[in-house]
Amino acid sequence: MMIWQQLQSLVGSYPLALRGLGTTVAVSLIGLLAGSLVGFAMGMLRAGGNRPVRLVIGAWVDLIRGTPFLVQIFLIFFILPEAGIELEAFTAGVIALSNLAACFICEIVAGGIGAVPKGQVEAALASGLSRWQRMRHVVLPQAMRIILPPLVGQYVLLIKDSSVVSAIGLTDLTRVGWLVVQRVPNGLLVFGIIGLGYFIVCYPLLAIARRIERRMGAAHAEVQL
Amino acid sequence: MLGNFSFRVILESLPAFGSGLATTLWLSLIAFAGALAVGIIACALKLQPAKLLQAPAVVFIDAIRATPLLAQLYFLYFGLPRLGIVLPELVVGILALSLNSGAYVAEIIRAGILSIPRGQVEAGISSGMTFGQRMRLVILPQAFKVTIPPLLGQAIVLVKDSALLSLIAVAELTRAGQSLASDRFMPAEAFITTAACYLILYYGLKALAALSARWVGLRPARQDRPA
């Protein structure tokens, strides 16, 4: 009986849940898009180009990869206002997630570019292609085969990381669970449903990543024969 | 104001950060040991032939990998009391970290085992070894080496993930930062010091991972070239 009442109460809070889902999707989507753009640019700079740029990007990526996302969010949310930049929680969350995404994607992209055989670049050089043409027509298309599987996997990790923005009071899916559980004291039920929400978004992506990996693996094996 | 960044406050609160760092370190160690146990069991279940036993391992691993650690943490924190299990926050936190990392550890070990060339297994079969003998004498000794660098990578992830335990009031490193930030209104000093402490752990573990990769005779994956 009690479960029934709790379920009714949960059904009543579906507008809140929708809002939370909307926030999670918005933060993740903007974060992933901005992160991919910046991450690809950073990755190309890190793989080639001049030494100081490579070192600076490498150091920044290391700083971000070496600290918890929660601490990064706190730093952005509490320190930027002290420097005179007023931020809403949403903006702070999006900035933090985009930065995190950019740093992880940078490493994946740089790794993929580094794995393209040197001879390919030399051939492109000998054909008189410019730097950008070499990147666009020769290196990136080959690197994408190596980049794609870990990239999709990284997207899943980032969508899950977006749950941490709830710590600065942003009403995302996880925060909704936290709010609802104060009224409906059944953590298994409430966070079971919240988990299901994430699962529906993340599981298909995980399956896609696995499939791409298998396909790329098969292609790779063919080459090795 | 960033203009009057106070190193004195940081110096004064160094003991608090020290004990937070120590807590983060030992709770991560326990959680990692737990993750290894969970990972080995889940992996063994997934690789053994009976479908009925595979299913729970597959569901567990996929459910963990497709949901955020924070939701899992709250699931246990708000859910266990519902089942009549009341545990201290610290124990709930370690449990959540172990289960979460355990799923990833299971996949790492599985990848290590599956990376052993098929010919090795066939050689074992034709020498008349049983499944158990092949595992113990042929596959596992080789797979063990391959898994060490990615396992250390997972250890780095676990240490960083442990910051989320501050949200259920476990007195670890990030909590020390939060306390300083709210008690003395000095978020810059508090969270920059917190980040610096995590970086110490990160670079330590990273050096260990690089060392182990050399010991195993693997170059870091990034430098590998396709044949």
Write structural notes for this entry.
The complex is a heterodimer of chains A (225) and B (227). Chain A has helices spanning 2-12, 14-47, 51-65, 69-79, 89-114, 118-126, 131-161, 173-183, 187-224. Chain A has 225 residues and is mainly α. Chain A has a single domain (2-224), classed as MetI-like fold (Orthogonal Bundle), CATH 1.10.3720.10. In chain A, helix 2 (14-47) packs antiparallel against helix 8. Chain A is elongated, with a radius of gyration of 21 Å. With 227 residues, chain B is an all-alpha fold. Chain B has a single domain (12-219), classed as MetI-like fold, CATH 1.10.3720. Chain B has helices spanning 7-12, 14-47, 51-65, 69-79, 89-114, 118-126, 131-161, 173-184, 187-216. In chain B, helix 8 (173-184) packs antiparallel against helix 9. The longest helix of chain B is centred in the first third of the chain and has 34 residues, at 14-47. The N and C termini of chain B lie far apart (55 Å). Residues 220-227 of chain B have low confidence and may be disordered. The interface between A and B is large, with 52 and 51 residues.
Quick synopsis:
The complex is a heterodimer of chains A (225) and B (227). Chain A has 225 residues and is mainly α.
